[in-house]
Amino acid sequence: MAICNKAWISLLLALAVVLAAPAARAEEAAAAEEAAPAAGEEAVLTLGTDNFDDAIAKHPFIVVEFYAPWCGHCKSLAPEYEKAAQLLSKHDPPIVLAKVDANDEKNKPLAAKYEIQGFPTLKIFRNQGKNIQEYKGPREAEGIVDYLKKQVGPASKEIKAPEDASHLEDGKIHIVGVFAELSGPEFTNFLEVAEKLRSDYDFGHTVHANHLPRGETAVERPLVRLFKPFDELVVDTKNFEVSALEAFIEASSTPKVVTFDKNPDNHPYLLKFFQGNSAKVMLFLNFSTGPYESFKSAYYGAVEDFKDKEVKYLIGDIEASQGALQYFGLNADQAPLILIQDAESKKFLNSNIEADQIVSWLKEYFDGKLTPFRKSEPIPEANNEPVKVVVADNLDDVVFKSGKNVLIEFYAPWCGHCKKLAPILDEAATTLQSEADVVIAKMDATANDVPGDFDVQGYPTLYFVTPSGKKVAYDGGRTADDIVEYIKKNKETAGQEAAAATEKAADPAATESLKDEL
């Protein structure tokens, strides 16, 4: 059964949609009309298991959208994707756009092979599929066209004259390799990194350092120079080992403090900030009222004080970051606030903080002296429906300490699959009401923090937990009869629970494993 995107991915997608600022261009609209195929003919290729490999082998550069017919984002993308395909069909060489219905049973092996976790997912296939990259560009036709035109041809362009370098201070990130000659292991490694990261950055190379902005003739070559519109503006490295060069680019291409506001120039850094599992420190306040400058000064000072810590920093305007606050279960009345989310997704919160408290509070966090904050809906006063409502604050009591066999669903209110499953769970729970040792429960994973015990990558996700603490991802059918049969087959009786507990108590390794798991 297909799943809906996980909440964190949904936040990123929502940000991408909200923050995108398409600019219509009359000349490209006219070109689209001229390039349009005959009526009823689509420029986007339709692929499936029967023709996918042939298409990848035929086209040296092809973009494939994995979609689901029910997906709202996919429906919004469809006309833009088709328009882009029409425009790009006239490009020299042609740039091919294709799509795969990943919700179709026969195509699900393709979705699994390419690790499709949500819809729409776009991937760029180069060199007959030998090089596969995520598409990270815009989602409107003109933006798609511009982005993909830059993706064909060499990954790095040679800078032969000063005018070739005039774009390096255009407010974007550019990476330039400066070499004594365009050969050798350093140049080869540079081109390898450029090919790998070309969908994210603009690369160039030269033997003339003086062609670069603020370039000097006497530069010690080879080196890589990264141009950026923030912090120190230019930063160099002479380490050409591939992984080190990738790490340098990653670390240098994000501001020390990412700004969450309505300025579209900041949005690429914002999306990058929320990706990955590294610890994040976020200050939210009103940029237009109150002592904004004093908070900004104190916060940037704290960033400098703790620059040796492996964390990301963000400063967000309350007006622009309502979606993020909602995701974390916060509201504007708590601002100015600092929220920290660590690498294990534990959260630490200080609401209505004063500017002069920022450094001391962050020091307490780094010293391990703070208590985590947990997002939770209120514990229900009445919980009499067949499917019990679980929230973050009572999950431990209902699931792990109740002494019962619990099937718990993690869902999202907007998820279509979850809505279809709801009456099925109700029917199964009603059937099992006479089973005193069985509970079917549900938790809104968008309104409550999901403990790390559960790997919730999409909705709905179901787990079965026994009284002895055994926890397994539910892999049974999705009918009421399937669920009832699964629970009856896998539940523990009182005797089995006691035996399991005795076995674990007798096995120190198992006890330690259980501690780690719980």
From TrEMBL:
Highest taxon listed in the record's lineage: Eukaryota
Disulfide bonds: 71-74, 415-418
Protein name according to UniProt: Protein disulfide-isomerase
Function: Participates in the folding of proteins containing disulfide bonds, may be involved in glycosylation, prolyl hydroxylation and triglyceride transfer.
Compositional bias per record (Low complexity), positions renumbered to this chain: 498-512
Keyword Heme tagged: no
Residue ranges occupied by any Thioredoxin domain in the UniProt entry: 15-153, 373-492
Cross-referenced SUPFAM superfamilies: Thioredoxin-like (SSF52833)
Signal sequence interval, chain numbering: 1-26
PANTHER family found in the cross-reference section: PROTEIN DISULFIDE ISOMERASE, PROTEIN DISULFIDE-ISOMERASE A3
InterPro entries, alphabetized: PDI_thioredoxin-like_dom, Prot_disulphide_isomerase, Thioredoxin-like_sf, Thioredoxin_CS, Thioredoxin_domain
Similarity annotation: Belongs to the protein disulfide isomerase family.
Positions of the UniProt region annotated as Disordered: 498-518
Subcellular location field: Endoplasmic reticulum lumen
